[in-house]
TrEMBL record:
Signal as UniProt keyword: yes
Name of the protein described by the UniProt record: DUF5050 domain-containing protein
Superkingdom in the source lineage: Bacteria
One family name in Pfam for this protein: DUF5050
Keyword match Membrane: no
Keywords tagged on the record: Signal
């Protein structure tokens, strides 16, 4: 249960009744005003909010955004809040803030077209020690659903709290009380590209990729600008799971009739080095460790060997200290690293399950059934259920929110940028095409972008990259991500 500034409790109501004469009604003392829910995106310190499913949705009153003074919002905005029945509400700017943790529910809370009744707060309010005469304010502090709502006017946002705000017809309203750490946003973007196979990675304005993932023929590891210009060949490797770590690329290279191996190379194409001969796939490099799926050799028809995942391992970046996190797990399909947590999918017969454990292999817990794909975006697990339902849930799986059910299956290739979840919808076979689409993170505004035989989606700044499948070969193409229509 989140900590909430609920001032309209029985105690607070009683204290107000002691001030006001008993015959005076609450309506007479504080006449209702009609607010609404914002019909545009709102971003807080780089996190795009989901107002559709918010337990405490933002309000719009006289064209001014109002924020609920819940624990999560005040912590994210860097506000110290205090309340007493004698002194009322006090808001003070403090040093530092934390990433926004959103209080969401599975129900749709924000009816965009509906009018919402609120009342001006009938108690004293102070901002940075200065008394606010709420009755004289053109944008008063409001009470809505027993929660205090505060206006983000120029006077308060700029002059009192020294925040930055911006407005864009497409991206909506944004407020910045603290800068989002660059490495946090970059790490999330890197993880989403890795989760799609890592055929492409981005850092410092450069794209590192394998543009031709062919079953036979020549391959290249190249770098270029996001728009495809300034392309430079780095090596002849058939590279996947490309990680950029400082001035190095770590990746998996595969050759016909040979096990995979982990290599590293400088971003300028020099010092190509074998790190480990371990037969691996799905490489993630994090905090001095290399995590990967260990491939086990199996016997196929006419004793021709093939390889399938046999567990999850990690080793140091120099190939030392190999550790087994999960062993004898032939049904592991995929994993996703998020901080100190490792999420993984299994295919146990016809059942596909999502588990989570510590990144050291401890504390394995089952989270969800029938999951075919997952991504972690701003602390929420976005996943595909039964190959067709796009959903998101809290990290402990206690809140599960349906977003979209596709008529074309399967749904896969999830990625994210600026409040939009990108995905591929539909199979294509030899001659068909799938649909590359996007949808807002609250499940609204779905848009079809293009038809292609895309096997994954990668994002490099304002470019959407996708490997296009043709008879087993995958050639990388890209298109500019145009801003959606408001």
């Amino acid at each position: 249960m989140p900590q909430i500034l609920k001032v309209w409790t029985a105690v607070a109501a009683l204290s107000l009744m002691l001030v006001w004469p008993a015959p005076v009604s609450r309506t007479a003392a504080s006449p209702e005003v009609q607010a609404s829910f914002p019909a545009f995106p709102v971003t807080v310190n780089g996190t795009v909010t989901d107002q559709t499913h918010s337990q405490y949705p933002l309000l719009l009153y006289r064209d001014i955004i109002y924020f609920p003074m819940t624990w999560n919002y005040t912590s994210s905005l860097g506000l110290a809040v205090s309340w007493s029945k004698e002194n009322g509400l006090s808001l003070d700017k403090k040093d530092g803030c934390v990433p926004l943790a959103q209080d969401l529910t599975a129900e749709v809370n924000a009816n965009i077209g509906g009018s919402q009744a609120a009342v001006p707060a009938p108690f004293p309010v102070k901002v940075n020690g200065k008394t606010i005469v709420n009755a004289d304010e053109p944008y008063p502090v409001l009470l809505y659903r027993n929660i205090v709502y505060f206006p983000m006017t120029w006077r308060f946002a700029y002059e009192e709290f020294n925040w930055k705000t911006s407005w864009n017809d497409v991206r909506g309203f944004a407020i910045q009380s603290c800068a989002r750490p660059d490495d946090e946003e970059r790490t999330q973007a890197e993880a989403l590209n890795l989760a799609n196979g890592g055929q492409l990675a981005v850092k410092d304005g450069w794209v590192y990729m394998n543009p031709y993932h062919w079953s036979e023929g020549a391959h290249q590891l190249v770098k270029s600008k996001p728009d495809g210009s300034s392309k430079t060949k780095l090596s002849d490797d058939k590279a996947t799971s490309i990680n950029v770590v400082g001035d190095w690329l770590y990746y998996i290279a595969s050759e016909p009739r040979k096990p995979n191996a982990i290599y590293k190379i400088k971003t300028d194409g020099t010092e190509r080095t074998l790190v480990s001969q371990t037969n691996a796939s799905g490489l993630w490099v994090r905090d001095g460790w290399m995590y990967y799926l260990r491939l086990a050799e199996r016997s196929g028809n006419e004793n021709a060997p093939y390889y399938t995942p046999g567990g999850i391992e990690r080793m140091r970046m120099d190939g030392s200290e190999k550790q087994t996190l999960l062993s004898n797990m032939d049904h592991i399909k995929y994993f996703f690293l998020q901080g100190e947590r490792l999420y993984y999918l299994t295919g146990e017969g016809e059942k596909k399950k999502l588990y989570v454990m510590g990144n050291d292999g401890s504390g394995q817990t089952e989270l969800q059934d029938n999951v075919t794909e997952i991504r972690i975006i701003d602390g929420w697990i976005y996943y595909v259920k039964d190959g067709k339902q796009l959903r998101k849930m809290s990290s402990d799986a206690s809140i599960d929110i349906p977003l979209h059910e596709s008529a074309r299956t399967p749904l896969f290739g999830l990625n994210y940028r600026d409040g939009w979840v990108y995905y591929v919808s539909g199979g294509f076979g030899i001659s068909g095409y799938a649909s590359m689409e996007r949808i807002r993170l609250d499940g609204t505004g779905r848009q079809a972008l293009a038809e292609a035989r895309a096997t994954a989606l990668y994002i490099a700044e304002d470019q959407l990259y996708f490997p296009d499948w043709s008879m087993g070969d995958r050639t990388m193409y890209h298109m500019k991500i145009d801003d959606p229509q408001p």
